[in-house]
Amino acid sequence: MTQTTSSGIGARLRAQVRGPVWQEHDDGYDDARRVWNGAVDRRPAVVVRCVDAADVRTALLVARDHGVPLSVRGGGHDWAGRALTDGGVVLDLSALRDVEIDAGAGVAAAQGGALVADVVDPADAVGLGTATAVVRTVGMAGMTLAGGYGGLVGRFGLALDNLLSADVLLADGTQVVAGPTGDPELLWALRGGGGNVGIVTAARYRLHPLGPVLGGMVLYPKEQAVGVLRGYREVLATAPDELTVMAGFVGGPDGGAAVYVAPTWSGDLAAGEAAVAPLLRLGTPVAGGVGPMPYPELIRMFEAGAQPGQHYALGTRWLPTLTDDAIEALAEGAASWLSPSSLLALHHFHGAATRVAPDATAFALRQEHVLAEVIAAWRPDPAGSGPAPHHAWVEGVAEALEPGALPGGYPNILGPADADRVRLGFGANADRLLAAKRRYDPDGVLTAIAAMSP
């Protein structure tokens, strides 16, 4: 984009939108282009912080008029930085965080920039909850549109299974409602298709009665990792819907890696104590514990490992089961990581999430499985070797987990080079999703917005 074109876009937007507009050299521009992953250093031509749906539509149409790429920033948590586009227009929804709870109807109505915390905190205050990711600062809409694994997946399904309807801005500026009585095909595509088919300016989520949960995190020494993860596998084999358990490796109290288990029990607390007890006997704990707490408090556990400004690289595999070979690969990965801020995480997909038909949503993988996340996190060192070794570690662990893995992978974690795996992940739904893409965005305007293009 030429400087003249950029100035023209900026001038039009300043004249037409209510929210602030930043261009390069403006005070606040660097803050406006900052996202969760400090490794992302993209320089959009214009950032528009939209204060209402009208701003979003105006910014979209101006970008289209000038023929420049655009991207949408919600929570800004995409590790690959797809919330920003070099030389393009960023539609920043981070000011759109209003949430209304209708306790009687069991519905949370949230603007498109709302974070997980913005939804779960007021819902918990009236004894309700919904399925979310395990980090409070993730954008609710972005997380939901691609899936939304978390501690309530066994009880309530994925976050996208709880998406009731959405206000959507299509690529031509048309504003529609995706829902059972609006546009059911658009709702189908949103439930797993990411941002490929439209910009969600508001959404409504199903809420469920939810009191205190039984949860926490227990750390075991890395020397006991193989035995602990084998025991974890045995617990998963008989886990009821109310019990969803994460596991993996985090930085331990001695500065090295420690193996962890992190249960979430969302049923009767007395029954939960018996269900969780085997997880406390998998080895000799070195830290942590389990107890009753509000769900919003439980999902604070991983905030320390998801600090904004660190540099991140992610990889992933879908594992049909946690084999001995996979356990060995994870243990070796933890022993070789380059930063104690790194993380290996296993999410159990089971229960209610598996009882949704594969063609009911764009998210097609409905068999029981384990989602493996490989997360390198580090602080840059000007005198160090740069990011390449951290990326190589992620790729190495992901490759070691590949034998026996299911095709494809979780789109929210796959990177720009993984388009083939994204399509495989949609399975038999891929052609239908591509047809929806052609219907709702025939000119491919929103390709840069998508978690990944199918």
UniProtKB/TrEMBL annotation:
<protein>
    <submittedName>
        <fullName>6-hydroxy-D-nicotine oxidase</fullName>
    </submittedName>
</protein>
<dbReference type="InterPro" id="IPR016167">
    <property type="entry name" value="FAD-bd_PCMH_sub1"/>
</dbReference>
<dbReference type="InterPro" id="IPR050416">
    <property type="entry name" value="FAD-linked_Oxidoreductase"/>
</dbReference>
<keyword id="KW-0274">FAD</keyword>
<keyword id="KW-0560">Oxidoreductase</keyword>
<keyword id="KW-0285">Flavoprotein</keyword>
<feature type="domain" description="FAD-binding PCMH-type">
    <location>
        <begin position="40"/>
        <end position="210"/>
    </location>
</feature>
<dbReference type="InterPro" id="IPR036318">
    <property type="entry name" value="FAD-bd_PCMH-like_sf"/>
</dbReference>
<dbReference type="InterPro" id="IPR016166">
    <property type="entry name" value="FAD-bd_PCMH"/>
</dbReference>
<dbReference type="InterPro" id="IPR006093">
    <property type="entry name" value="Oxy_OxRdtase_FAD_BS"/>
</dbReference>
<dbReference type="InterPro" id="IPR016169">
    <property type="entry name" value="FAD-bd_PCMH_sub2"/>
</dbReference>
<comment type="similarity">
    <text>Belongs to the oxygen-dependent FAD-linked oxidoreductase family.</text>
</comment>
<dbReference type="Pfam" id="PF01565">
    <property type="entry name" value="FAD_binding_4"/>
</dbReference>
<dbReference type="GO" id="GO:0016491">
    <property type="term" value="F:oxidoreductase activity"/>
</dbReference>
<dbReference type="InterPro" id="IPR006094">
    <property type="entry name" value="Oxid_FAD_bind_N"/>
</dbReference>
<dbReference type="GO" id="GO:0071949">
    <property type="term" value="F:FAD binding"/>
</dbReference>
